[in-house]
Specification:
single chain, mainly alpha
Length: about 70
C-alpha cells in the first residue's frame, strides 16, 4: 500500500513539475476565480446581514425561502 501511494505521489509530482502549458492555464484559472470572487463581493453584498438584525430573523427568512412551494 505504501509503495503504491509513493508511486502515485511521484507520478503527480513529476507530472506537475514537467508541465509548461498547464502551469499557465492553472494561473489563468486561479486569476479568474479571484476576479469572480471579488466582483461577487462588490456587486452582491450580504443581504441577510444587512436586512435582518438577529440570527433568528435570518434563520426564519431562509427557512421560509427554502420551504416556499413551487409555482
Amino acid at each position: 500500500m505504501g509503495r503504491r501511494l509513493g508511486r502515485i505521489t511521484a507520478l503527480y509530482r513529476d507530472g506537475f513539475r514537467e508541465m509548461r502549458l498547464g502551469r499557465r492555464l492553472w494561473k489563468v484559472i486561479l486569476i479568474k476565480l479571484v476576479v469572480i470572487y471579488l466582483l461577487g463581493r462588490c456587486f452582491f453584498p450580504d443581504y441577510l446581514r444587512v436586512n435582518f438584525a438577529s440570527d433568528k430573523a435570518r434563520a426564519d427568512s431562509v427557512l421560509a425561502a427554502l420551504t416556499r412551494p413551487a409555482r
